[in-house]
Amino acid sequence: MRRVCPLLGAGALAAVIAGCGGAPSKASFIASADKDCAAAQAQISKVAKPSLGRNATRGQAVQALATYLDRELAVSGQLLKELKGLSQPTQDKTLLLQYLDSLQQGLTDYENLDAALKSRNAKAITQAYDAANSTQAATLAKAYGFKVCSVAAQSS
To answer: Which of 53, 66, 121, 137 could form a disulfide bond with 153, CB atoms 3.0-4.6 angstroms apart?
Structure first.
């Protein structure tokens, strides 16, 4: 009996240490990430959407869209940094990493669309637009359990 008690004490101590400095729970990670996504959505909602009069030229429309994308990309890039900077849980880690990779690819695709708009290359615009709209981020976010982040990924 004497030998069991020290082991129980060590086990309890290990549980306390793991709770203090270990990986966060999946639920607490989702709560933190969804909070960051909500803040980013609030910022993006304040970005004025391009609006042009009937007499606007195609060049003006393209420039307005590129300017809008620049502002959205700044917020989205910061959000991705914040999400990657959060301490990650071990539960469903592969799915989480797939989600973050999909967000990174989506951001890259939108950066390519922005560059294509600025170069006014119609073929590049079409290709970049198609790529930007093929992201699986919303599906992966929902599968992981995100609430706000899954909506943010879908509306990107």
So the answer is: 137
